Amino acid sequence: MFRQLPAKLHNLHLPLQLRLWDGCQIPLGPDPVVTLNIKDPSLIAQLDQLSLNLLGSSYVEGRLEIEGSINDVIRLADDLCQALLGDRENEDLPLHEAHDKATDASAIAYHYDISNDFYRLWLDRDMVYSCAYFETGKEDLDQAQQAKLHYLCRKLRLQPGESLLDVGCGWGGLARFAAREYGVKVFGITLSQAQLTLAQQRIAEENLQDRVNLKLMDYRDLPQDGRFDKVVSVGMFEHVGYANLPLYCKILFNAVRPGGLVMNHGITTLHTDGHPANRGAGQFIGRYVFPHGELPHLALISAKLSEAGLEIIDVESLRRHYVRTLESWSARLETQLDKAQSLVTEQTLRIWRLYLAGCAYGFRRNWINLHQILAVKPFADGSIDVPWTRADLYRDLLR
């Protein structure tokens, strides 16, 4: 059986071993810390075309079991793929999909409507499902997410009495925070019924019904009369799709008043051509985690915002912050696997274990990034009314 393995596997020095369906153990290096238990014999024939997508899908589908910490599993899986594939990519350029309302609603429900209690296991107390902000690096997850919410509100220069549009409001953490801490009125939208139900419950518990109004709505149905003073979109444009980016940006432009600010916060790809993340990781995410998701490069979303009429005034990478956020999420999930198993299916839990730890690894390796882009809608004469410096953003951040 050992002779049937790809020749390159014979000369590796990875702390990894294979255990075959008949109990035979094949070390791929000294002192293994991870064991891949191959349950499906046909997987052996595919090892010469190994990718993170193949390994991940095999685990999700039960063709493969894993032993070892999830972080070691991800690291060694990538080392193994690199040893067999080198640095060459094994993915074709993506075919950009048409995103209609039904397709997008289905994709959002698949990702977000699995179980509010499952998300509650590993998110912060406000269930903010986006990159946290670690001002000193010593904060815990709750502190870092509160800091991120302050940071967003400060970048938007929110003032009491202003109206804020929250595109992709999730469980309402930012909407409630902005209303409570900055005195604004918030209108938010989501395509997830599960998110909306819990968000409305929390709004009622905090007696914020007069200041926060959240609805189940597609972004293409937003009012286009410039009624909002500020607009924020966090972790949403990744679901829009390349084909709809111009429309998405134009909708943000039309929703905000002249002089108003727009914040777009989301994940961006490393490759300007939209090539997925390395060694099949992007294929795995597209298949199991974010169906129909498409990550644009920073240059592309910046171009589309500009073409829509918005002037970009600030861009910031939070990649390192997202590494720490994802590591925290993954660690919190790993400590509660038994409880998680009672809330979601075995396959779903396997997907999320790989996704959270794998994304932390991908962000750490700079395969993907995250950018906050702050833009303004100029007045008719081209003028803008924003501070000359960033000084106000960093003053007393954790108030």
UniProtKB/TrEMBL annotation:
EC number(s) given by UniProt: 2.1.1.79
Residue ranges annotated for the DUF7884 domain, each copy included: 12-77
CDD domains reported for this sequence: AdoMet_MTases
SUPFAM superfamilies listed in its UniProt record: S-adenosyl-L-methionine-dependent methyltransferases
UniProt KW keywords: Lipid metabolism, Methyltransferase, S-adenosyl-L-methionine, Transferase
Active site, renumbered: 359
Pfam families on file: CMAS, DUF7884
GO molecular function: cyclopropane-fatty-acyl-phospholipid synthase activity
GO biological process, any: methylation
Classification via InterPro entries: CFA/CMAS, CfaB-like, CMAS, DUF7884, SAM-dependent_MTases_sf
Similarity field: Belongs to the CFA/CMAS family.
Record's protein name: Cyclopropane-fatty-acyl-phospholipid synthase
Species in which this protein is naturally found: Azomonas macrocytogenes (Azotobacter macrocytogenes)
